[in-house]
Amino acid sequence: MKQILQSLKTGETEVAEIPCPVVMHRQVLIRSTVSLVSVGTERMLVEFGKAGWIEKAHQQPDKVRMVLDKIKTDGLMPTVETVFNKLDQPLPLGYCNVGVVMETGSGVSGFAPGDRVASNGKHAEVVSVPANLCARIPPLVSDEEAAFTVIGAIALQGIRLVQPTLGEAVVVTGLGLIGLVAVQLLRAHGCRVLGIDLDAEKLALAREFGAEVVNLAAGEDPVAAAQAFARGRGVDAVLITASTKSNAPVHQAALMSRKRGRIVLVGVTGLELSRADFFEKELTFQVSCSYGPGRYDTNYEEKGQDYPVGYVRWTEQRNFEAVLDMLSDGRLNVQPLISHRFPIDASEDAYALIGGAEPALGILLRYPTPAEKPEVEVRRTSVRLAGSHAAAGAAALGFIGSGNYATAVLIPAFKATGARLKVVASNGGVSGLHAGRKYGFEASTTDTDSIFADPQVNAVVITTRHDSHAALVCQALAAGKHVFVEKPLAMNHEELAAIEQAHAIAVATGRSLVVMVGFNRRFSPQVQKIRSLLEGTRGPKAFVMTVNAGAIPSEHWTQDLAVGGGRIIGEGCHFIDLLRFLAGVEITAHHSVRLQAATADTVTIQLAFADGSIGTIHYFANGSKSYPKERLEVFAAGRVLQLDNFRKLTGFGWPGFTKMNLWRQDKGQRNCAGMFVNVVEKGGFTPIPLAEVLEVSRISIEVAANLR
Questions:
Q1: For residues 495 and 693, is the Cβ–Cβ distance under 8 A?
Q2: Where does the record place a coiled coil (predicted)?
Q3: The pTM is what?
């Protein structure tokens, strides 16, 4: 199927052939009929992509500060690689989609195949959208009209925050698509409306919709015009739907408002506010968040947890429905807003239009009908790529998951081994296509099961969200595939037992399969050096591992106990494994304590080993980003070793050893991948014994449970 992607590096758009997405839990799979280009938002994205590096940095000062912090902790080159990797990822465009339901995922009610729906789906022939971001289209509303649903909901949410009452005087600054829809919705509320813009054609449309207007291009004074419009009392409210870097719209809104007037920002403007403007009139200022309550709330959008209507009358989905009702009743007219129509194959012409001088307002993209393109064609879940085949006998890898970590670190590490990159899978198709193109995979797919069924794939690399790891490991073992799984191996004891049983069944049937977890710290050259130095000492050792992990919001998926398992299971296991490797003997006891906070990710873990050694892991989320992220200290036989960020190893009191410095931090991951590929191809010694992997995983699970 075809989808529009944009490069953040160059600003170029393309119509890419990608695998059809799979319908997920609580999602709806939709075949698109038409979608609307949001000219303001999408022009901004295209212009950002086409900007030079200096201009990009100027537009994103917060991101620049994050980059500078990362340089302090990780070094210049790893940070540069991370930034380039992020900008290299294609951005799916669009959020105003109309189509027909093809399939519904588990947990979905209220939708059925054949329903016409409006959603915030992308510009693609098929989209998979959370059910709470879809609304059924009334019979009297055409697909083209319904394409304005999301734009209408953005305008409507801004109006709800304004809280207009019958007869009030309201100003709309910026008469693009959202502004012109807002004019009509405010008129439907019984308000008198004054529209402000520079474009004569948009002003004419606003006047047609019942507004009085101010033409800034003609030199008209918006403040004076607003005061006259409000009969000298000041306007009751101002809705700012403009997109500009200037502070003028907010300043002018304050000047034209009455005492205790309301100002709501829907668009993007400069926000250097004058205290005097707001203080003297006791004005209220609020920024509207997209389509309404529920936006960016994972529980609402992804997990389908609706807000009770008795407490939250208007959610983003119910705003969609309200806009569709207005279209059905004829109180909202969007036909005059349509300026251009393009087939999806000509979308590059559409984006050239929004970046050019020709006037454009509502640009619609049309998609092939079932008669023009059969469903079997749009539902293809695999796309062949131009990847090169490795020599016969090489490890043939199937990657499941192609997120940020996979594309930035894991896939490059495996590519460096010379393994055959056979196929990469992703749920949505876009990230898998990008990874496949960039690293030379032979195919990209959204059908994970096809990887297990492929006889040419002899090893599977799992890098998905944590709650899927154990089931995928068991599936791979049952299919006779070697497994490399990113940590964690499992989320609970039941999953560990299932993996152990699946491996035992494979062994019993004569298949010597490797299960390896991405515990890459133990494969770092500096850690290997520490291990070799410790082998020459006698007596127990003391280890202190300090991890300046940094804060992750409680709503992030890694903090969700059901999905990510929390940070100790998700990342703390790395350091339990590291100390287990350096001690070289079993962990006999553990104890942990946490800082009392919203998330259990500032903790101290104490380990005792069978040879009398002890270890302490300080995993802290409350430190400064300017401090090194990971520091290991080893005390043994009157000597000390100190390792900072896996780049600088220093010895104190070690005969013949003082320091070992490396420029790159990812050597451990590359070594880890290399050892896995080597054992897949040649057999022999397992890089990490399964018993050790299970031991570390079990202790991580127990520590996490103790901290809750």
A1: no
A2: none
A3: 0.89
